[in-house]
Amino acid sequence: MGELLIGADHGGFTLKKALVEHLRRKGIAVRDFGCHSEESCDYPDTAFKVAAEVAKGHRGVLICGTGIGMSIAANKVRGVRAALCHDERTARLSREHNDANLLALGGRTTDVELAKRILDVWLSTSFAGERHGMRVGKITSYEAAQ
Amino acid sequence: MGELLIGADHGGFTLKKALVEHLRRKGIAVRDFGCHSEESCDYPDTAFKVAAEVAKGHRGVLICGTGIGMSIAANKVRGVRAALCHDERTARLSREHNDANLLALGGRTTDVELAKRILDVWLSTSFAGERHGMRVGKITSYEAAQ
Predict the structure, then answer these.
(1) ipTM, two decimals
(2) Strand stretches in chain B, DSSP E
């Protein structure tokens, strides 16, 4: 899979730290886009940086307090399909049905251990293609027409 | 608030029906963009139609199986901030912090009674502005630069 990209704002900083450790323990290379403290920062800044790299063919994780701000901002980037997941089932479905290349998580809404399981499922699930591919294609076509 | 727009795919059809009844019982005008059965259809078609209207100044609700496909597609539309909410707290925060003008819900992941409470909180909560306004402004600036 290559390097996994990760970024957060202050509301996601603690969860990001835990997930970076979790990933490195599993031998997965991680590129950390910050933030590097709980000092207040603006989620769109990190979202656009990580999403621009994801659009080039990487996969990424973005964390803010609820994951909502990150998912809104990241989905503005052409080629990015950011899925806000709050359990393992939605993580699996976001890969199978939506071919999500970016996982959004809520640092203040999702427990650290659950977030690790969500991330593991998300990383190990493949896109199902077929009718889902046709639907994802409609999103790509919309983006191309803008 | 004026008319509320609502749309779903086959995975969100049943929940949409329940929410339309709930809203009309509360005296809220609803414009229903379909689908009108459980027959398989493509979520991006409905997402782009509803989102285009939301971008003109309305508020809307989009429902697919998980809400993920709808939130990805709707956020592609300039001026739309689609929040996937799975409880009342994230519904409140999506209005206070993200000024979400579109609520995405999972018809197969969120219980009908919980979805009604999520929708009620989402409709009755105001944007908090201030630092959150500056952050939303960064999303709007990104969109304008595309």
Answers:
(1) 0.97
(2) 4-8, 30-32, 59-64, 82-84, 102-106
